[in-house]
Amino acid sequence: MNAPSGRILTRISDAELERRWRLVRSAMRERRMDALVMQATNDWLGGYVKWFTDLPANNGYPRSIVFHIDDAMTIVEMGPTGATRALSGDALYRGAGEAKLTPSFLSIDYTHAYDAELVVADLKPRSYRTIGLVGKGALPHAFVTHIEGAIGAVEFLDATPMVDRIKAVKSAEEIDLIRATAKMQDRVFAAVLEHVRPGMRDVDVTAFAQLQGQLMGSEQGIFLGGSSPMGTRSPFVPRYMQGRTLQRGDHLSLLIENNGPGGFYTEIARTIVLGKASNELKDGFESVREAQTHTLSLIEPGVSCRDIHSAHNAYMEKRRLPPELRLYAHGQGYDMVERPLIRSDETMMIEAGMNLAVHPGYETDSIFAVICDNYLVETTGVSDCLHATEKRLFELSV
Protein backbone atom coordinates (compact mmCIF):
# COMPACT_ATOMS: atom_id res chain seq x y z
CA MET A 1 0.00 0.00 0.00
CA ASN A 2 1.31 3.45 -0.88
CA ALA A 3 2.06 5.77 2.04
CA PRO A 4 -0.59 8.53 2.33
CA SER A 5 2.12 11.23 2.39
CA GLY A 6 3.26 10.08 -1.05
CA ARG A 7 -0.15 10.85 -2.54
CA ILE A 8 -0.04 14.61 -1.87
CA LEU A 9 -0.11 16.66 -5.08
CA THR A 10 2.22 19.37 -3.80
CA ARG A 11 3.87 19.01 -0.40
CA ILE A 12 5.02 21.96 1.72
CA SER A 13 8.55 21.48 3.00
CA ASP A 14 9.34 20.51 6.59
CA ALA A 15 11.44 23.68 6.87
CA GLU A 16 8.45 25.86 5.92
CA LEU A 17 6.16 24.24 8.46
CA GLU A 18 8.82 24.59 11.15
CA ARG A 19 9.22 28.29 10.26
CA ARG A 20 5.50 28.84 10.83
CA TRP A 21 5.43 26.93 14.11
CA ARG A 22 8.51 28.80 15.38
CA LEU A 23 7.02 32.22 14.62
CA VAL A 24 3.69 31.36 16.25
CA ARG A 25 5.27 29.87 19.38
CA SER A 26 7.41 32.97 19.77
CA ALA A 27 4.29 35.15 19.59
CA MET A 28 2.48 32.85 22.03
CA ARG A 29 5.29 33.17 24.57
CA GLU A 30 5.10 36.95 24.36
CA ARG A 31 1.38 36.74 25.17
CA ARG A 32 1.74 33.85 27.65
CA MET A 33 -0.56 31.55 25.70
CA ASP A 34 -0.26 27.85 26.49
CA ALA A 35 -2.14 26.48 23.48
CA LEU A 36 -4.16 27.46 20.42
CA VAL A 37 -7.38 25.80 19.32
CA MET A 38 -8.74 26.01 15.77
CA GLN A 39 -11.13 24.16 13.52
CA ALA A 40 -11.98 24.25 9.81
CA THR A 41 -14.51 22.47 7.62
CA ASN A 42 -13.46 23.65 4.16
CA ASP A 43 -10.44 24.83 2.20
CA TRP A 44 -12.01 27.94 0.65
CA LEU A 45 -12.00 29.95 3.87
CA GLY A 46 -10.49 27.45 6.31
CA GLY A 47 -6.83 28.17 5.81
CA TYR A 48 -5.66 28.19 9.44
CA VAL A 49 -5.73 24.41 9.70
CA LYS A 50 -3.94 24.03 6.36
CA TRP A 51 -1.33 26.63 7.35
CA PHE A 52 -0.43 24.81 10.58
CA THR A 53 -0.52 21.24 9.23
CA ASP A 54 -0.36 21.19 5.40
CA LEU A 55 -3.64 19.26 5.61
CA PRO A 56 -6.80 20.97 4.34
CA ALA A 57 -10.28 20.50 5.73
CA ASN A 58 -12.80 19.35 3.14
CA ASN A 59 -16.48 18.76 2.44
CA GLY A 60 -17.86 20.31 5.63
CA TYR A 61 -16.14 17.71 7.84
CA PRO A 62 -14.52 19.25 10.93
CA ARG A 63 -10.77 19.05 11.47
CA SER A 64 -9.67 20.54 14.80
CA ILE A 65 -6.12 21.36 15.87
CA VAL A 66 -4.68 21.91 19.33
CA PHE A 67 -1.34 23.67 18.91
CA HIS A 68 0.66 23.38 22.13
CA ILE A 69 3.36 25.80 23.21
CA ASP A 70 5.81 23.03 24.19
CA ASP A 71 4.43 19.84 22.70
CA ALA A 72 3.35 18.27 19.42
CA MET A 73 -0.05 19.18 18.01
CA THR A 74 -3.16 17.13 18.67
CA ILE A 75 -5.55 16.59 15.75
CA VAL A 76 -9.25 15.79 16.08
CA GLU A 77 -10.91 14.62 12.86
CA MET A 78 -13.41 12.30 11.21
CA GLY A 79 -13.07 8.61 12.05
CA PRO A 80 -14.34 5.70 14.15
CA THR A 81 -15.74 6.49 17.57
CA GLY A 82 -13.09 6.33 20.27
CA ALA A 83 -10.20 5.59 17.93
CA THR A 84 -6.81 7.24 18.43
CA ARG A 85 -3.59 7.13 16.46
CA ALA A 86 -0.06 7.89 17.59
CA LEU A 87 1.46 10.25 15.04
CA SER A 88 4.95 11.08 16.26
CA GLY A 89 7.20 11.02 13.21
CA ASP A 90 4.27 10.44 10.82
CA ALA A 91 5.16 11.77 7.36
CA LEU A 92 1.60 12.96 6.68
CA TYR A 93 0.70 14.45 10.08
CA ARG A 94 3.89 16.41 10.57
CA GLY A 95 4.28 18.19 13.91
CA ALA A 96 1.41 16.19 15.44
CA GLY A 97 1.67 13.69 18.29
CA GLU A 98 -1.79 12.16 18.33
CA ALA A 99 -5.01 12.02 16.32
CA LYS A 100 -8.33 11.59 18.10
CA LEU A 101 -11.16 10.40 15.87
CA THR A 102 -14.92 10.81 16.02
CA PRO A 103 -17.79 10.72 13.50
CA SER A 104 -19.26 14.20 13.95
CA PHE A 105 -21.23 16.25 11.44
CA LEU A 106 -22.31 19.87 11.46
CA SER A 107 -25.65 18.74 10.04
CA ILE A 108 -26.32 16.38 13.00
CA ASP A 109 -26.99 18.40 16.12
CA TYR A 110 -26.38 15.69 18.70
CA THR A 111 -22.79 15.23 17.47
CA HIS A 112 -21.84 18.88 17.91
CA ALA A 113 -19.99 18.32 21.18
CA TYR A 114 -18.04 15.25 20.03
CA ASP A 115 -15.00 17.13 18.69
CA ALA A 116 -15.03 19.51 21.65
CA GLU A 117 -15.02 16.61 24.13
CA LEU A 118 -11.84 15.25 22.57
CA VAL A 119 -10.22 18.68 22.60
CA VAL A 120 -11.10 19.04 26.30
CA ALA A 121 -9.66 15.59 27.02
CA ASP A 122 -6.39 16.77 25.49
CA LEU A 123 -6.28 20.16 27.23
CA LYS A 124 -7.67 19.61 30.71
CA PRO A 125 -4.92 17.37 32.17
CA ARG A 126 -2.29 19.93 31.21
CA SER A 127 -3.60 22.60 33.62
CA TYR A 128 -3.14 25.40 31.13
CA ARG A 129 -3.93 28.95 32.19
CA THR A 130 -4.43 30.70 28.83
CA ILE A 131 -5.80 29.27 25.58
CA GLY A 132 -6.06 31.17 22.33
CA LEU A 133 -8.89 30.60 19.85
CA VAL A 134 -7.94 30.99 16.17
CA GLY A 135 -10.59 31.92 13.63
CA LYS A 136 -13.02 32.48 16.48
CA GLY A 137 -15.79 33.81 14.26
CA ALA A 138 -15.87 30.58 12.26
CA LEU A 139 -15.79 28.17 15.21
CA PRO A 140 -19.14 26.48 15.88
CA HIS A 141 -20.97 27.86 18.88
CA ALA A 142 -21.45 24.39 20.38
CA PHE A 143 -17.74 23.62 19.97
CA VAL A 144 -16.60 26.77 21.79
CA THR A 145 -19.18 26.77 24.57
CA HIS A 146 -18.50 23.14 25.41
CA ILE A 147 -14.74 23.72 25.67
CA GLU A 148 -15.14 26.88 27.75
CA GLY A 149 -17.62 25.21 30.08
CA ALA A 150 -15.73 21.96 30.55
CA ILE A 151 -12.16 23.11 31.17
CA GLY A 152 -12.74 25.39 34.12
CA ALA A 153 -10.47 28.21 35.33
CA VAL A 154 -8.78 29.03 32.04
CA GLU A 155 -8.57 32.39 30.29
CA PHE A 156 -9.64 32.24 26.63
CA LEU A 157 -8.21 34.85 24.26
CA ASP A 158 -8.82 35.61 20.60
CA ALA A 159 -5.52 34.64 18.97
CA THR A 160 -6.73 35.31 15.43
CA PRO A 161 -5.09 38.74 14.92
CA MET A 162 -1.78 37.36 16.19
CA VAL A 163 -1.82 34.49 13.69
CA ASP A 164 -3.17 36.66 10.86
CA ARG A 165 -0.21 39.02 11.01
CA ILE A 166 2.24 36.13 10.75
CA LYS A 167 0.27 34.31 8.06
CA ALA A 168 -0.18 37.40 5.87
CA VAL A 169 3.55 37.79 5.12
CA LYS A 170 4.63 35.04 2.75
CA SER A 171 7.91 33.16 2.78
CA ALA A 172 10.00 32.60 -0.34
CA GLU A 173 8.58 29.07 -0.67
CA GLU A 174 5.02 30.34 -0.40
CA ILE A 175 5.69 33.08 -2.95
CA ASP A 176 7.00 30.55 -5.46
CA LEU A 177 3.77 28.57 -5.10
CA ILE A 178 1.63 31.69 -5.38
CA ARG A 179 3.40 32.61 -8.61
CA ALA A 180 2.76 29.07 -9.88
CA THR A 181 -0.97 29.47 -9.13
CA ALA A 182 -1.17 32.68 -11.15
CA LYS A 183 0.62 31.03 -14.08
CA MET A 184 -1.80 28.11 -13.89
CA GLN A 185 -4.75 30.50 -14.06
CA ASP A 186 -3.26 32.20 -17.12
CA ARG A 187 -3.12 28.81 -18.82
CA VAL A 188 -6.70 28.02 -17.77
CA PHE A 189 -7.97 31.31 -19.17
CA ALA A 190 -6.08 30.79 -22.44
CA ALA A 191 -7.65 27.34 -22.74
CA VAL A 192 -11.12 28.83 -22.15
CA LEU A 193 -10.56 31.31 -25.00
CA GLU A 194 -9.84 28.41 -27.33
CA HIS A 195 -12.83 26.42 -26.10
CA VAL A 196 -15.72 28.86 -25.63
CA ARG A 197 -18.27 29.15 -28.42
CA PRO A 198 -21.95 30.00 -28.99
CA GLY A 199 -24.32 27.25 -27.89
CA MET A 200 -22.42 26.50 -24.68
CA ARG A 201 -24.04 27.22 -21.35
CA ASP A 202 -22.23 29.37 -18.83
CA VAL A 203 -21.79 26.25 -16.70
CA ASP A 204 -20.09 24.45 -19.60
CA VAL A 205 -17.48 27.21 -19.66
CA THR A 206 -16.83 27.20 -15.91
CA ALA A 207 -16.80 23.38 -15.74
CA PHE A 208 -14.18 23.33 -18.50
CA ALA A 209 -12.11 25.92 -16.61
CA GLN A 210 -12.33 23.88 -13.41
CA LEU A 211 -11.23 20.72 -15.19
CA GLN A 212 -8.23 22.45 -16.75
CA GLY A 213 -7.15 23.77 -13.35
CA GLN A 214 -7.44 20.39 -11.67
CA LEU A 215 -5.39 18.77 -14.42
CA MET A 216 -2.70 21.37 -13.62
CA GLY A 217 -2.61 20.65 -9.88
CA SER A 218 -5.49 22.69 -8.45
CA GLU A 219 -7.50 21.18 -5.62
CA GLN A 220 -10.37 23.59 -4.93
CA GLY A 221 -11.85 26.88 -6.00
CA ILE A 222 -14.80 28.78 -7.41
CA PHE A 223 -15.58 29.72 -10.99
CA LEU A 224 -18.09 32.52 -11.41
CA GLY A 225 -19.33 33.20 -14.91
CA GLY A 226 -22.39 35.02 -16.17
CA SER A 227 -23.28 35.90 -19.75
CA SER A 228 -25.72 38.43 -21.19
CA PRO A 229 -26.52 40.08 -24.50
CA MET A 230 -24.49 43.20 -25.20
CA GLY A 231 -26.21 46.14 -23.52
CA THR A 232 -27.24 44.11 -20.43
CA ARG A 233 -24.83 43.67 -17.53
CA SER A 234 -23.24 40.23 -17.12
CA PRO A 235 -22.40 39.90 -13.41
CA PHE A 236 -20.61 37.01 -11.72
CA VAL A 237 -23.09 34.32 -10.75
CA PRO A 238 -22.59 31.00 -8.90
CA ARG A 239 -22.85 27.63 -10.57
CA TYR A 240 -26.53 27.03 -9.79
CA MET A 241 -27.35 30.18 -11.84
CA GLN A 242 -25.13 29.32 -14.81
CA GLY A 243 -27.83 27.79 -16.99
CA ARG A 244 -27.93 30.48 -19.69
CA THR A 245 -26.85 29.56 -23.24
CA LEU A 246 -24.32 31.79 -24.97
CA GLN A 247 -25.22 33.38 -28.32
CA ARG A 248 -23.17 35.30 -30.87
CA GLY A 249 -22.71 38.89 -29.73
CA ASP A 250 -22.97 38.03 -26.02
CA HIS A 251 -20.37 38.82 -23.41
CA LEU A 252 -19.30 36.70 -20.46
CA SER A 253 -17.70 37.86 -17.21
CA LEU A 254 -15.44 35.09 -15.92
CA LEU A 255 -13.73 34.83 -12.53
CA ILE A 256 -11.21 32.03 -12.05
CA GLU A 257 -10.46 31.76 -8.31
CA ASN A 258 -8.99 28.34 -7.75
CA ASN A 259 -6.02 27.34 -5.70
CA GLY A 260 -2.89 25.98 -7.27
CA PRO A 261 0.05 23.80 -6.30
CA GLY A 262 0.28 23.63 -2.52
CA GLY A 263 -3.20 25.07 -1.99
CA PHE A 264 -2.49 28.80 -2.46
CA TYR A 265 -5.07 31.10 -4.04
CA THR A 266 -4.85 33.85 -6.61
CA GLU A 267 -7.68 35.06 -8.85
CA ILE A 268 -8.13 36.48 -12.32
CA ALA A 269 -11.17 38.07 -13.94
CA ARG A 270 -11.70 39.18 -17.52
CA THR A 271 -14.62 39.74 -19.89
CA ILE A 272 -15.00 37.61 -23.01
CA VAL A 273 -17.05 38.90 -25.96
CA LEU A 274 -18.38 36.55 -28.63
CA GLY A 275 -18.06 39.24 -31.28
CA LYS A 276 -17.55 42.95 -30.84
CA ALA A 277 -17.71 44.88 -27.58
CA SER A 278 -19.78 48.03 -27.29
CA ASN A 279 -18.00 51.33 -26.72
CA GLU A 280 -19.71 51.51 -23.32
CA LEU A 281 -18.23 48.17 -22.28
CA LYS A 282 -14.82 49.19 -23.57
CA ASP A 283 -14.96 52.45 -21.63
CA GLY A 284 -16.09 50.61 -18.49
CA PHE A 285 -13.22 48.16 -18.67
CA GLU A 286 -10.72 50.95 -19.25
CA SER A 287 -12.10 52.74 -16.18
CA VAL A 288 -11.52 49.76 -13.87
CA ARG A 289 -8.12 49.03 -15.42
CA GLU A 290 -7.05 52.58 -14.61
CA ALA A 291 -8.57 52.29 -11.13
CA GLN A 292 -6.53 49.14 -10.54
CA THR A 293 -3.38 50.97 -11.65
CA HIS A 294 -4.20 53.84 -9.29
CA THR A 295 -4.64 51.51 -6.30
CA LEU A 296 -1.39 49.72 -7.12
CA SER A 297 0.44 53.06 -7.09
CA LEU A 298 -0.61 53.52 -3.44
CA ILE A 299 0.50 50.13 -2.12
CA GLU A 300 3.83 49.97 -0.31
CA PRO A 301 5.05 48.80 3.09
CA GLY A 302 3.86 50.93 6.00
CA VAL A 303 0.77 52.32 4.24
CA SER A 304 -2.61 52.08 5.93
CA CYS A 305 -5.22 49.95 4.17
CA ARG A 306 -7.84 52.46 5.26
CA ASP A 307 -5.98 55.25 3.48
CA ILE A 308 -5.74 53.24 0.26
CA HIS A 309 -9.47 52.54 0.38
CA SER A 310 -10.28 56.20 1.01
CA ALA A 311 -8.04 57.30 -1.86
CA HIS A 312 -9.66 54.77 -4.19
CA ASN A 313 -13.13 56.07 -3.44
CA ALA A 314 -12.00 59.65 -3.96
CA TYR A 315 -10.53 58.57 -7.31
CA MET A 316 -13.80 56.89 -8.35
CA GLU A 317 -16.02 59.76 -7.26
CA LYS A 318 -13.84 62.27 -9.10
CA ARG A 319 -14.59 60.32 -12.27
CA ARG A 320 -18.30 60.10 -11.46
CA LEU A 321 -18.06 56.40 -10.77
CA PRO A 322 -19.63 54.72 -7.73
CA PRO A 323 -17.57 54.51 -4.52
CA GLU A 324 -16.51 51.03 -3.40
CA LEU A 325 -18.77 49.60 -0.70
CA ARG A 326 -17.78 45.97 -1.17
CA LEU A 327 -14.32 44.40 -0.87
CA TYR A 328 -12.25 45.35 -3.90
CA ALA A 329 -8.73 44.31 -2.81
CA HIS A 330 -7.50 41.86 -0.20
CA GLY A 331 -4.87 39.38 0.87
CA GLN A 332 -4.83 35.79 -0.32
CA GLY A 333 -3.00 32.64 0.68
CA TYR A 334 -4.60 29.39 1.81
CA ASP A 335 -7.84 31.39 2.04
CA MET A 336 -9.59 32.97 -0.92
CA VAL A 337 -9.92 36.05 1.27
CA GLU A 338 -7.53 36.76 4.11
CA ARG A 339 -6.15 39.84 5.79
CA PRO A 340 -5.29 42.51 5.04
CA LEU A 341 -8.48 43.90 3.51
CA ILE A 342 -8.21 47.15 1.56
CA ARG A 343 -11.19 48.58 3.37
CA SER A 344 -12.12 51.26 5.86
CA ASP A 345 -12.36 48.84 8.81
CA GLU A 346 -8.91 47.20 8.40
CA THR A 347 -6.32 47.97 11.09
CA MET A 348 -3.45 46.00 9.55
CA MET A 349 -0.74 47.90 7.66
CA ILE A 350 0.72 46.87 4.33
CA GLU A 351 3.93 44.81 4.67
CA ALA A 352 6.41 43.42 2.19
CA GLY A 353 5.66 39.82 1.33
CA MET A 354 1.87 40.12 1.21
CA ASN A 355 -0.07 38.65 -1.73
CA LEU A 356 -2.91 40.95 -2.80
CA ALA A 357 -5.78 40.45 -5.22
CA VAL A 358 -6.89 43.82 -6.64
CA HIS A 359 -10.27 43.84 -8.39
CA PRO A 360 -12.01 47.21 -8.68
CA GLY A 361 -15.34 47.12 -10.47
CA TYR A 362 -18.77 48.62 -10.81
CA GLU A 363 -22.01 47.84 -12.56
CA THR A 364 -24.91 49.59 -14.23
CA ASP A 365 -27.98 48.17 -15.90
CA SER A 366 -26.00 47.81 -19.12
CA ILE A 367 -22.46 46.81 -18.10
CA PHE A 368 -20.51 44.95 -15.45
CA ALA A 369 -17.01 46.42 -15.50
CA VAL A 370 -14.42 44.27 -13.76
CA ILE A 371 -10.76 43.34 -13.67
CA CYS A 372 -8.82 41.17 -11.22
CA ASP A 373 -5.15 40.28 -10.83
CA ASN A 374 -2.65 39.47 -8.09
CA TYR A 375 0.44 41.37 -6.97
CA LEU A 376 3.08 40.88 -4.32
CA VAL A 377 4.08 43.70 -2.00
CA GLU A 378 7.79 44.41 -2.33
CA THR A 379 10.03 46.78 -0.39
CA THR A 380 9.27 49.81 -2.59
CA GLY A 381 5.80 49.00 -3.93
CA VAL A 382 4.12 46.18 -5.81
CA SER A 383 5.69 43.54 -8.01
CA ASP A 384 4.96 43.09 -11.67
CA CYS A 385 1.55 41.53 -12.17
CA LEU A 386 1.62 37.85 -11.25
CA HIS A 387 -0.82 37.14 -14.09
CA ALA A 388 0.53 37.41 -17.63
CA THR A 389 -2.93 37.55 -19.26
CA GLU A 390 -3.40 40.85 -21.08
CA LYS A 391 -5.48 43.50 -19.37
CA ARG A 392 -8.11 43.93 -22.08
CA LEU A 393 -11.51 42.78 -23.29
CA PHE A 394 -11.22 39.57 -25.27
CA GLU A 395 -13.27 39.91 -28.47
CA LEU A 396 -13.52 36.53 -30.21
CA SER A 397 -14.41 35.81 -33.83
CA VAL A 398 -17.04 33.07 -33.59
Question: Characteristics of this structure?
Answer:
398 residues; alpha+beta; Creatine Amidinohydrolase, Chain A, domain 1; Creatine Amidinohydrolase; 2 domains; seven-stranded mixed sheet; five-stranded antiparallel sheet; 9 helices; 32% helix; globular
Write up this protein:
This protein has about 400 residues and is an alpha+beta fold. It is about 30% helix and about 20% strand. The strands form 4 sheets. It has a 7-stranded mixed β-sheet with strand order 4-5-3-2-1-6-7, sandwiched between helices. The protein has a 5-stranded antiparallel β-sheet with strand order 12-11-13-16-17, with helices on both faces. The protein has a 4-stranded mixed β-sheet with strand order 8-9-10-18. α1 packs antiparallel against α5. The longest helix is centred in the middle third of the chain and has 24 residues, at about 170-195.
Task: Please sum up the structure shown.
The chain has 398 residues and is of the alpha+beta class.
Q: What is the strand arrangement across the widest sheet?
A: 4-5-3-2-1-6-7
The residue fraction in helices comes out at: 25-40%
Fourth-level CATH superfamily of the largest domain:
Creatinase/methionine aminopeptidase superfamily
Terminal Cα separation, in Å?
50 Å
Shape label: globular
Order of helices and strands: HEHEEEEHEHEHHHEEEHHEEEEEEEE
Nearest-integer average pLDDT: 95
Q: Return Rg in Å.
A: 23 Å
Strand residues, percent = 15-25%
Largest sheet: 7 strands, mixed
Q: Count the strands?
A: 18
Number of helices: 9
Structural class: alpha+beta
CATH domain class of the largest domain: Alpha Beta
CATH level 3 topology of the largest domain: Creatine Amidinohydrolase
- CATH-level-2 architecture of the largest domain: Alpha-Beta Complex
Task: Please tell me the total number of domains.
Answer: 2
Which blocks of ≥5 consecutive residues have pLDDT under 50? Answer: none
